[in-house]
């Protein structure tokens, strides 16, 4: 018992060593990719079969994710082309990316890297046997002089340890990590006996059934689900006009917010209170996938898989009616996000086409992406490329508040004041003060651009919003589609240019939408290396 315990504690230390990026990079030199033809699980129905198929495909292509996360080169492979065929099935390709990120999470933040090795499996086979030995020795030994309570406690401890180690063994051999291990083993007879004869499939189904039974018995979910990565289903939302129409309103500012400012947590409160999250729409998924596929088809990535052009530049060059708009992309990435974010809100309020019934899907997608990029800028700037622009963000907010303060005199309803005083969250999806936002947007639109000395970024906002509305009004350009394309390009650029370390660290707290796009771009890049 002592020996097994000491070895397992040593295994934890070894797992910590194996879970850093340098160790992953070193292991890639001697590791064989999990390439196989055992994608179709048998005797499963519906969603379970589809999910199992995608999960095995994720293991087959996981070496792309590992090489990408450590910035290592990877050879082209015919399997990559099969993956590009899945681009038409949005749910499937999205599920594939989620599962690959789940596998990467296992490598970085669990003991998967050491459990699913010859040493790890042997240890889990030996551990139950090592516990059975003292259990039998205690059973057949004399218990004279020992109290019944001590004897009962000893049996409980030994049986519990045996149960835990047996469960650990079943989970290890029934995991799809064991499937990947069997695919890469040099013992062809073992691979044949386990996979070709479907013995491992039967074991996996038995373990899955046991999971479902335990969950149903304990009141959990009745279905067994594989380790799908679920941290990328929503987009964080933060809107600057929404925030600035509520900021510094002493009459109705939340009481908890006032307390936070008193203890020096004012900025933290503003980030949390005025932000929210919303489920990713299918249009956003579809549009980003098509946009990336088009970029690769046109050769817009260099030999290292990095975007050649500036954020938003590709979208502007596609539309010849807006060659002059490149000056509004900003010198730094985050500066461009701020300018386009505010100008987008102003444009959507002034645009006639945005209010047409058939444009609601595009308008929603634009708002989701615009608010998401500002959410990253405010809450998670480490997930964005380029220099941080917190000072510029704060100064722009101050300019908006000053601009709003003069003309914005209103009478407050007592119930509205009470709701605001005790509110815990006021996210951008709230329409409680949409009128205030529209007023501020109209002030910006009507502002004379000569105020650039006091608020230079807002002068860009005014000029950009006017250009978009004017081009739409003369009927020559679909400005709404252009704005959608620009935000899609900005989103893809953010994922491509974000550091690998930031993508890896964010997996520990749920992942990001841009991480999905980054990994998808890596797959498309490898497919492009294979050629037509």
UniProtKB/TrEMBL annotation:
- Domain of life the protein comes from: Eukaryota
- Give the protein's recorded name: DUF4220 domain-containing protein
Pfam name, any one:
DUF4220
Q: Which residues form the DUF4220 domain?
A: 1-243
């Amino acid at each position: 018992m002592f020996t097994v315990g000491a070895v397992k504690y040593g295994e934890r230390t070894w797992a910590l060593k194996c879970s850093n990026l340098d160790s992953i990079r070193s292991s890639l030199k001697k590791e064989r990719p999990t390439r196989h033809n055992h994608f179709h699980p048998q005797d499963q129905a519906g969603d379970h079969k589809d999910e199992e198929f995608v999960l095995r495909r994720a293991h087959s292509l996981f070496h792309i994710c590992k090489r990408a996360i450590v910035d290592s080169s990877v050879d082209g492979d015919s399997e990559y082309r099969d993956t590009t065929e899945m681009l038409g099935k949005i749910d499937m390709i999205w599920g594939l990316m989620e599962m690959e990120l789940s596998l990467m999470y296992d490598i970085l933040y669990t003991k998967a890297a050491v459990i699913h090795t010859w040493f790890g499996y042997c240890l889990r086979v030996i551990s139950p046997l090592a516990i059975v030995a003292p259990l039998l020795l205690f059973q057949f030994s004399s218990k004279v002089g020992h109290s019944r309570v001590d004897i009962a406690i000893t049996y409980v401890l030994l049986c519990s340890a045996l149960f835990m180690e047996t469960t650990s063994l079943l989970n290890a051999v029934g995991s799809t990590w064991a499937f990947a291990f069997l695919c890469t083993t040099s013992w062809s007879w073992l691979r044949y006996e386990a996979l070709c004869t479907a013995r491992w499939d039967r074991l996996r189904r038995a373990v899955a059934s046991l999971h479902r039974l335990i969950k149903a018995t304990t009141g959990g979910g009745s279905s067994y689900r594989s380790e799908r990565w679920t941290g990328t289903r929503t987009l964080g939302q933060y809107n600057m006009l929404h925030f600035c129409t509520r900021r510094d309103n002493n009459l109705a500012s939340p009481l908890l917010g006032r307390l936070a400012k008193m203890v020096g947590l004012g900025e933290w409160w503003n980030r949390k209170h005025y932000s929210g999250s919303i489920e990713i729409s299918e249009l956003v998924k579809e549009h980003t996938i098509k946009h990336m596929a088009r970029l690769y088809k046109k050769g817009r990535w260099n030999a290292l898989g990095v975007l050649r052009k500036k954020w938003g530049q590709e979208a502007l060059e596609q539309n010849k009616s807006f060659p002059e708009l490149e000056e509004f992309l900003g010198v730094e990435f985050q500066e461009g996000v701020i300018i386009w974010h505010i100008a987008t809100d102003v444009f959507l309020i002034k645009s006639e086409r945005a209010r047409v019934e058939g444009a609601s899907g595009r308008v929603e997608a634009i708002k989701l992406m615009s608010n998401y990029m500002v959410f990253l800028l405010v809450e998670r700037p480490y997930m964005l490329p380029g220099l941080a622009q917190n000072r510029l963000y704060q100064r722009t907010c101050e300019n908006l508040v000053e601009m709003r303060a003069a003309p914005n005199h209103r009478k407050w309803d007592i119930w509205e004041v009470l709701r605001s005083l005790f509110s815990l969250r006021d996210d951008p999806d709230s329409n409680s003060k949409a009128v205030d936002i529209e007023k501020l947007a109209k002030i910006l639109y009507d502002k004379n651009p000569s105020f650039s000395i006091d608020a230079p970024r807002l002068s860009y906002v005014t000029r950009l919003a006017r250009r978009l509305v004017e081009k739409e009004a003369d009927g020559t350009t679909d400005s709404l589609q252009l704005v959608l394309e620009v935000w899609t390009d900005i989103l893809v650029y953010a994922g491509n240019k974000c550091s690998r370390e930031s993508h890896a660290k964010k997996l520990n707290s749920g992942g990001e939408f841009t991480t999905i796009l980054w990994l998808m771009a890596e797959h498309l890049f490898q497919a492009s290396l294979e050629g037509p």
